[in-house]
Amino acid sequence: MSSSCSAALVNMYAAHHHHSTLPHLRFHISNSAILMTALLCFNSRTHCFLMPPPVLGIYCCTSVYFKTISKEKGKDCCKWIGVTCERVTGHVVGLDLSCSGLQGNIHHNSSLFSLSHLQRLSLSCNDFTGSPVSSNFGRFVSLTHLDLSFSNFSGHIPSELSHLSRLVSLNLSAYDKPYYLRLETFSLKRIVQNLTNLRELVLDGANMSSVLPDPFLNWTSLTHLSLRDCRLHGQIPWSLLLKLDQLVWLDLSGDNLVGQLPKVHSNSTTKISSSLYDSFNKKPEPAVLMLSQLQQLDLSYNSFTGAIPSWIYSLPSLASLYLSNNRFTGTISKFQYTSLTDLDLSYNKLHGQIPISIFELPNLSLLSLEANNLSGVVEFDKLQRLKYIWLAYNHLSVRLNNFSNSSWLNLTIVHLSSCNISEFPYILRYSPQLESLDLSYNQLQGKVPTWFLDGRKDTLSYLNLSHNFLTGNIEQLPWRNLKNLDLESNFLQGQVPIPPPSILVFSISNNQLTGRLPPSLCNLTSIQILDLSNNSLSGKLPSCLGNFSDSLSVLDLRKNKLVGLIAATFKKGNVLRTLDLNGNQLDGPLPQSLRNCSNLEVLDLGNNYINDTFPNWLETLPMLQVLILRSNSFHGPIRSPITRFPFQKMRIMDLSHNHFCGPLPKKYFENLLSMMNVQGDELKYMGEYYYQDTVVVAMKGSQLQLVKIQTFFTTIDFSNNAFRGKIPKEIGKFKSLKGLNFSHNYLTGSIPPSIGNLTNLEWLDLSSNMLVGEIPRNLADLTELGTLNLSENRLVGSIPQGKQFNTFENDSYIGNFGLCGYPLSKTCTTEEAHPSSFQGEDDLEQVNGFDWEIVLMGFGCGMVIGFSMGYLVFSNRKLDRIVKNFGRELRSKLLK
Ligand SMILES: *[C@@H]1O[C@H](CO)[C@@H](O)[C@H](O)[C@H]1NC(C)=O
Ligand SMILES: *[C@@H]1O[C@H](CO)[C@@H](O)[C@H](O)[C@H]1NC(C)=O
Ligand SMILES: *[C@@H]1O[C@H](CO)[C@@H](O)[C@H](O)[C@H]1NC(C)=O
Ligand SMILES: *[C@@H]1O[C@H](CO)[C@@H](O)[C@H](O)[C@H]1NC(C)=O
Ligand SMILES: *[C@@H]1O[C@H](CO)[C@@H](O)[C@H](O)[C@H]1NC(C)=O
Ligand SMILES: *[C@@H]1O[C@H](CO)[C@@H](O)[C@H](O)[C@H]1NC(C)=O
Ligand SMILES: *[C@@H]1O[C@H](CO)[C@@H](O)[C@H](O)[C@H]1NC(C)=O
Ligand SMILES: *[C@@H]1O[C@H](CO)[C@@H](O)[C@H](O)[C@H]1NC(C)=O
Ligand SMILES: *[C@@H]1O[C@H](CO)[C@@H](O)[C@H](O)[C@H]1NC(C)=O
Fold first, then answer.
1. Directed axis angle between helix 876-895 and helix 841-848, to 10°?
2. CA of 259 relative to ligand 4 center, distance in Å
3. What does the pLDDT look like over 761-787, one tens digit per residue?
4. Gap from CA of 623 to ligand 8 centroid (Å)
5. Is 380 within 8 Å of 359 (Cβ atoms)?
6. Over the stretch 521-538, which tens digit does the pLDDT of each residue have?
7. Which ligand 1 atom is nearest residue 109's CA?
8. Which of 74, 394, 486, 775 reaches 20 to 30 Å from 400, CA-CA?
9. Among candidate residues 508, 515, 551, the one with its CA nearest the CA of residue 533
10. Which DSSP helix (H) or strand (E) runs through 652?
11. Helix-then-strand count for the chain, H and E
């Protein structure tokens, strides 16, 4: 039989013995080696490779072992899995190498291309990253089926594919790697002209942005046309499309298409009158609408507008209709035929009632009308086959309690968020397949019924009862395979109920839970997100908290009554991303094991009693973006960074309301890279897809809760500490900064003009310090600045006028007796406007022979009693002068 193998395969077999120098488990396959390995992967399991002769053997990734294949079998390639030979000639006519774990390039000179008799070739589901689709594919003139999908080919789709005139099916789909492949009009035209036998064309994910869709649509033999995510844009020439009378499957989803669907009066055999025809196409010839075969129509994720036209409702074979995520308006009509199984009209702007006829469609299995503007009462007791239902986010009132218990056996996904449901739907008792139930944002009240909690549903994996009015305590959660449980925003009481160990996401925030954190929490070894925030949980943190689940990414315990040390030990290699303990009564120092949280992005410890120095050892955490230490007992100076690029990603830094002292950390200001250039073209939020971090930021003078943190939101709040010294001019590097608050410290010197470089600044608070000199003129150029507070300082001269400064009022400046000009009532005399002879900080030191640094450092860092009190006694007269010069603020600070 070996003679019946094609020469190419045998040659390859021989030619590649140099690979036999053992065992590259992921060796780079080039050219013809592909065939060898591929075939072997098929013979064994994936990730196993067979070495060609003379060292014939199979190498698997985990264990290397030889398995001798009999010579006979090894030689007769027609017996290899995936190879089909023509019986008489022995030519290889079929090669199926799909999902064979192949990697590498397919060059033009690959011996693959000498298999000239191939009729069917599949290389799909491999990894040929970097390989173009060789124009040599055009040499397989006998090919009827070519499948190169999901194999990471890239570059142009060659026009030589148009030589494959017998081709019936061409699949270049790659929507998992969109736009790797590109198709130009030139190639497309040639392909359309020559491949007259083509019936299936799948180009999902190819970049067709430069192609006008017309040429496609002249292809009356097509049965399957799929151009999902192809960047087609603009209007579809419907007149041509509707002529594809063999079409069974049409997918134009995700393509930026716009405009209205044509309003043709249709019936599979009705001619469109030319006047109607003209309304959507300028060409004079009348079109005939013939989509009588169409079973699947997917136009989702485009920008279609207008009403869903009547011809859609009268396609006689239609089984699946996906029009979601468009801007369709109008109402939903009756479907003329009963063939429909899947109907997805979600995320549009449809209004009115859901026609009862939909609930009478006998085959309907999927119904998604979520996120429209539908209204009315929905009372359904039919839909025997319904498995998946989404009706959330409309203005519907859903009544589920009229039922006959056998009707609901198939229900698998039930998403009825915000459907005005006030009673637990009893039908769920009879839904043995239920996997996912979302009844969030309804009016469920009272206790969760025992029949619901008793029902052992091992199928249930997602349960969302958030935002209802549930009360009482839940003692058991019986669903053994539950993965997501959301009980947020109810009125649940008692202890924290412990979900089964299968749980991945558990939120019971915003309830009234009490008691301690149960030690059994430590049994949730797979949990990724644990949110118990905003309850009344008390007692100490269990010590397992840092290391009970290797997958824990979010731990949110904010706003409870937890006390004691943060005794948690965070293991090396943990994946914690958010740790939020804000608003408890935790004390003691920070646990040093936080160093091990190399994935940490958000650390919020605000509003506790933590007593520690500034944790500069956190600066090595490469992902840390939000650090909130607000309102604790942090103290001491902020020492210099210990690394070259400290806090590389820091964007929100709130150290306010502590006892930090010493100079502002100039060295940090020189190096906080992300404050300097956060790019923010797109509106993105942290954790957008799995958990939205919430932080409270003092913003524009009031505390705001940010439920989502924009990824380019950057603020610094060091207010209400005892920082002293000058504002470092380096602050002007923070180009992305939106808010800066240094108020209520002992800052001296003048406002550095470099603050005028902070072009994104929206609020600036330097109030209640001891700043001197004039307000830099260039602050008037900060066009985003909406809030300015410079009050209670010792600023002098005329207030800058014009631009932003016209919008600020008196409050921004009060307590600076040397300021004049609008909006203050005090007008500027010539002398006041240019106060050249004012004793600034330096002058004053000379005049008084008095060293500010020492007094303020002594005070700020807690040495006030031993050091500056002595000084005060010693030089009372000088104190009077200081007080005169620097105002009440200082006096009260020094004497309190
Ligand atoms: C095939 O072509 C590639 C790149 O063009 C080249 O590196 C390789 O040596 C060629 N192989 C053979 C066997 O000619
Ligand atoms: C798509 O192709 C066009 C040129 O045809 C190119 O300008 C564009 O960048 C490509 N888009 C993507 C996302 O690769
Ligand atoms: C469609 O095909 C016909 C002949 O098959 C040709 O005359 C016509 O120009 C083609 N239309 C387009 C838009 O390519
Ligand atoms: C379509 O037309 C045929 C004959 O012209 C007719 O029998 C059929 O009922 C029509 N269908 C619809 C939905 O109007
Ligand atoms: C929703 O529909 C009602 C009529 O049913 C209409 O008054 C209202 O403007 C619509 N709302 C939106 C956002 O389209
Ligand atoms: C539960 O539903 C609410 C509102 O519909 C949603 O915001 C939340 O993300 C859901 N919870 C989970 C865990 O999916
Ligand atoms: C905390 O939960 C209570 C209900 O227990 C709710 O009223 C309040 O708005 C919640 N606070 C926050 C900040 O979510
Ligand atoms: C953890 O689970 C095991 C087995 O289910 C159980 O024996 C143990 O008591 C649990 N531990 C706690 C603290 O609940
Ligand atoms: C902070 O801790 C130190 C000892 O570590 C202690 O002397 C000091 O009193 C504590 N401060 C506060 C405010 O608890």
1. 130
2. 28
3. 888 999 999 999 999 998 988 888 888
4. 34
5. yes
6. 999 999 999 999 999 999
7. 1
8. 486
9. 508
10. strand 652-654
11. 15, 57
CB 750 within 8 A of CB 766: no
SS3 538: strand
Q: Closest ligand 8 atom to the C-alpha of 498?
A: 14
Q: Which amino acid, one-letter code, is at 794?
A: R
Ligand 7 shell residues, CB under 6 Å: 510-512, 534
Indicate if the pLDDT at residue 695 is higher than 80. Answer: no
Nearest-5° Cα angle at 534, 533 to 536: 110
Atom 5 of ligand 1, nearest CA residue: 107
Nearest to 828 by CA among 804, 800, 868, 853: 800
CA distance 588 to 565: 5
The rounded mean pLDDT for the chain is 78
Tokens of 545: 């908290």
**Alpha carbon of 110 to ligand 1 centroid (Å):** 8
Note if the pTM is more than 0.85: no
Q: How far is the CA of 478 from the centre of ligand 2 (A)?
A: 52
What letter represents residue 7's amino acid? A
Which ligand is in closest contact with the Cα of 519? 8
Largest Cα–Cα separation, the chain: 117
Residues in the chain: 896
Q: How many CA atoms lie within 13 A of 499 on its CB side?
A: 28
Residues forming beta bridges with residue 726, ordered by sequence position? 748
Domain boundaries, the chain: 613-836, 845-896
Report which DSSP code applies to 617.
Answer: G
> Is the CB–ligand 6 distance for residue 393 below 6 Å?
no
Closest listed ligand to the CA of 232: 2
Helix (H), strand (E) at residue 512: strand 512-513
Q: What is the distance in A from the centroid of ligand 5 to the CA of 368?
A: 19
Instruction: From 824, 754, 751, 762, select the one nearest 793 (Cα to Cα).
Output: 751
Tokens (6 digits) for 438: 């979302």
Q: For the chain, report the end-to-end CA distance as a whole number of angstroms.
A: 102
Tokens of 454: 């008793």
- How far is ligand 9, taken at its centre, from the CA of residue 694, in Å? 30
337 lines ligand 4 (CB under 6 A): no
CA nearest neighbour of 364 among 406, 402, 407, 393: 407
For 755, residues 6+ apart whose C-beta sits below 8 A from its C-beta are 727, 731, 732, 740, 761, 764, 776, 779
Q: Which residue has the tokens 């040499």?
A: 139
**Cβ–Cβ under 8 Å, residues 737 and 721:** no
Exposure string over 11-29, b if 16+ CB within 10 A, otherwise e = ebbeebeebeeebeeeeeb
Ligand 6 probe mutation, 440, 441, 487, 528, most atoms within 8 A of CB: 440
**CB of 523 shorter than 6 A to ligand 8:** yes
Distances (CA, A) of 727 to 642, 669, 755, 889: 21, 10, 10, 19
Architecture of the structural domain at 613-836: Alpha-Beta Horseshoe (3.80)
Which ligand is closest to the CA of 582, given by its number? 7
Read off the tokens for 734: 């923070």
Ligand 2 in contact with 210 (CB < 6 A)?
Answer: yes
d(Cα 872, Cα 894) in Å, to the nearest integer?
9
| C-alpha dihedral sign at 183, 187, 190, 196 | negative
pLDDT at 283 over 80: no
User: Whole-angstrom Cα distance, residue 845 to residue 149?
Assistant: 77
Q: Residue 450's CB: how many other CB atoms inside 10 A?
A: 8
What is the share, in percent, of the chain residues with pLDDT greater than 90?
44
Q: Which residues pair with 436 in a beta bridge?
A: 413, 462
Angle between helices 852-860 and 841-848 (to 10 degrees): 100
Phi, psi dihedral angles at 437 (to 5 degrees): -130, 120
* Closest by Cα among 862, 660, 852 to 742: 660
To test the ligand 4 pocket, which listed residue (264, 265, 266, 267) has its Cβ within 8 A of the most ligand atoms? 267
Ligand 5 pocket test: which of 351, 377, 394 has the largest number of ligand atoms within 8 Å of its C-beta? 351
